[in-house]
């Protein structure tokens, strides 16, 4: 069965990957969640390089900020400077509540900034809200 939407999850924490995928499985939409562990892998995925030659084009990107090799801000900067990738909405999904992270993420072109709730129910609700807004309500190019 084909998915209605594809989400690229850029996250290095396996527990958060699992929770995010679980939240999307509860969706009324068919959402294909592809996950990669850092910005280097995410760029390869988006550019269909190496093992990602058959990667689908994501409708949105959910991005953690704190990752090895290439962090979220550096990745966001690369995506928003790339003519073929810059229209993909990037929603920062991170544990950070730092004002400087919020401001810098928006300055780099993120479409939204969501702090990951610690509580499981609130985390699932946050992902549902992201889905409702970005995959149902908003029109994307």
TrEMBL record:
<dbReference type="InterPro" id="IPR001789">
    <property type="entry name" value="Sig_transdc_resp-reg_receiver"/>
</dbReference>
<feature type="domain" description="Response regulatory">
    <location>
        <begin position="6"/>
        <end position="131"/>
    </location>
</feature>
<dbReference type="InterPro" id="IPR011006">
    <property type="entry name" value="CheY-like_superfamily"/>
</dbReference>
<keyword id="KW-0597">Phosphoprotein</keyword>
<protein>
    <submittedName>
        <fullName>Response regulator</fullName>
    </submittedName>
</protein>
<dbReference type="InterPro" id="IPR052893">
    <property type="entry name" value="TCS_response_regulator"/>
</dbReference>
<feature type="modified residue" description="4-aspartylphosphate">
    <location>
        <position position="64"/>
    </location>
</feature>
<dbReference type="Pfam" id="PF00072">
    <property type="entry name" value="Response_reg"/>
</dbReference>
